[in-house]
Amino acid sequence: MAANECIFNLVPQELKAIEKSPMYRSKHDPRAPVTNSTLGVKGTTRLHGVGTIVKKNSGTMGRPDRTSAANPNTFLKKKTGPVYEAGGNFMRETSGRKSAVPKKHERPILGQRSAKNFISVNAVEAILKVPGGRKEEDPRYMTKSDFGKKPAYLKQVKEQIQRENELIDQYMENQAGRNRSEAEEELEMMDPHEQEELIIQLKTKWDSVNQSYQKMCHMVTFDTVGKLRRKTELEAELTNLDADIQRLSKGPVYLSK
């Protein structure tokens, strides 16, 4: 039996009528003209629902009823217009004018001669004149007296740096001496015989470790991981023993109490 087959499908079902919603009716008049519309206003044919053009009075050149036409007899006559009072006598500004052209009877004085020697005056002016338009030359530092010498301010800077270093060294020495004195109070010096004995034991251990290391130091490739680890451990142990021997051989050793 298929999945979509069922015995209830044989029972006749009641058909329900589909209710339709009422048709939409606008509350506005569909035959009213469109507001401010100019569609189809030209020509003799008027479409349904289009707007109309309302012509206002004086919308064109003048009123159509000619009620505002001017009377040709009431034109502006002499001395009938508004009266304007003058603001005072007009004065033209003459301060920036050039001098007037001489009249025809104003002749200049001719035949005047000067005793001035223009050649000598020009020569003196040329000699005393300061030359201009010259480009300033770059200063020549090689001709200076202090060229190639150490500047004096460097000596002052070196002395200041030296004084600062001396103050820093003195402060560090005082601080180190204070720390050393405090550390010496809390530390105890190792017995020299015990120190020598410890150095001998470390050297003996270093010989035995070195003997084992010499057996495999020539190996470059290792077939097992254990051999590689053994060689690495021997190298690290030899390095630590060397460091301990050198530390004990430097001088007295202090131990914490």
TrEMBL record:
Q: Where do the Enkurin domain residues begin and end?
A: 156-256
Which domain of life, per UniProt? Eukaryota
* Pfam families the UniProt entry points to: Enkurin
User: Taking the first listed entry, what is the main subcellular location of this protein, grouped into a coarse class?
Assistant: other
Which portions of this protein are annotated as coiled-coil regions?
A: none
PROSITE patterns from the entry? Answer: ENKURIN
| Record key words, sorted | Cell projection, Cytoplasm, Cytoskeleton
Q: Disordered: where is this region?
A: 23-42
Listed InterPro entries: Enkurin_dom (IPR027012), Enkurin_domain-protein (IPR052102)
Provide GO CC annotations from the record: cilium; cytoskeleton
List locations, semicolon-separated.
Cell projection, Cilium; Cytoplasm, Cytoskeleton
UniProt GO MF annotations: calmodulin binding
Give the protein name, as stated in the record.
Enkurin domain-containing protein
Q: What is the lineage of its organism?
A: Eukaryota, Sar, Stramenopiles, Ochrophyta, Dictyochophyceae
